[in-house]
Amino acid sequence: MIFLLTLITDAGVKPLISILGLKYEGIRYFANSVIKSDIFQLNQRREEDRYIHVVVFIAHQYYRLQDNLVIHF
User: Which residue among 23, 44, 52, 67 is buried most deeply as judged by most CB within 10 Å?
Assistant: First the structure.
């Protein structure tokens, strides 16, 4: 888990997603998993798994916001 935190804080989210080899479908899968889960279900995951899900969810939300801004402006 320390390795994941180092990647997230030192390099940002994008390199972590690249290291994991996630494409759009993978990002969407993880994000939908977070959206459909309850807090209790997320807390039942291992710590490393939780961090991956949350980081990918944040990236997904960022990409959605960016897409919406491009469409509307």
Answer: 52
